[in-house]
Amino acid sequence: MREGIIYKALSGFYYVDSRGESFQCRARGVFRKKGLTPLVGDQVLFQIENETDGYITELKPRSNELKRPPVANINQVLVVMSAKEPEFSKNLIDKFLVIVESFDIAPCLIVTKKDLLNDEQIAVIEKHLADYEAIGYRTYFVSNLEDQSALSKILVDGINVLSGQSGVGKSSLINAVKPNSNLETGVISSALNRGKHTTRHVELIQVDGKYLADTPGFSALDIAHIDKYVLKNCFPEFAAREEQCKYRECLHVNEPACAIKDAVQSGDIMQSRYDNYLQLMNEIETRKARY
Prior knowledge:
9 helices; G_CP_dom
């Protein structure tokens, strides 16, 4: 029996890295009976059948998991946005950050295409990123993500997941760190101001001993799993102040003596963050009414 990590799942096969060796594995039928599906990122025990093949016999407990895209045991999500083409959007950033926070995973905010901006535009983006750093987020502003030394500083030990708008350079990054991957890069749609999805499956790629995953589907921005009480805790600057609210279950919308609304008024919480919170709250309430 050997131990390893699933680094790719494709067409019913699970590719397991075990001490630098790769094995193509099937999952035992017992997983189907238990309603379990192995995911990329799973730590597994497997039985070797021959030099290159085997059967997965056990899944180790997961620290977390995403269904879309299907990845387990994530240590950091890189929320990648572009400064231009497609245009920088704090609304989209906040939505991605909320989704990542809802799974209790650490996000890191990266803005690309710095080289397409003039000095004045760069200063504006840097001010926005300083505001996010004040909340506690790690941020990076880069021309591209293909510089190995810069990327190594951004990645943390374990599994790092790429997320963000299509067309921001995620596939270009994967091609840079794994030249033989030949991922198709997306063409920007001027009508929709976003790229076309190009990635076909989830795969972990080793970068300086750390894992990096490209993740199709992580631009769907699905918040169906988030209710209004989870939402308010997905804004760290809200959670840090909510004990000062008059009402214990304060949702920071219409309640009096709300510390979050006071902090918005004083400028201690970004107005844009609060506006995006209200927009997401409205989406959740509209969804509840519809169903």
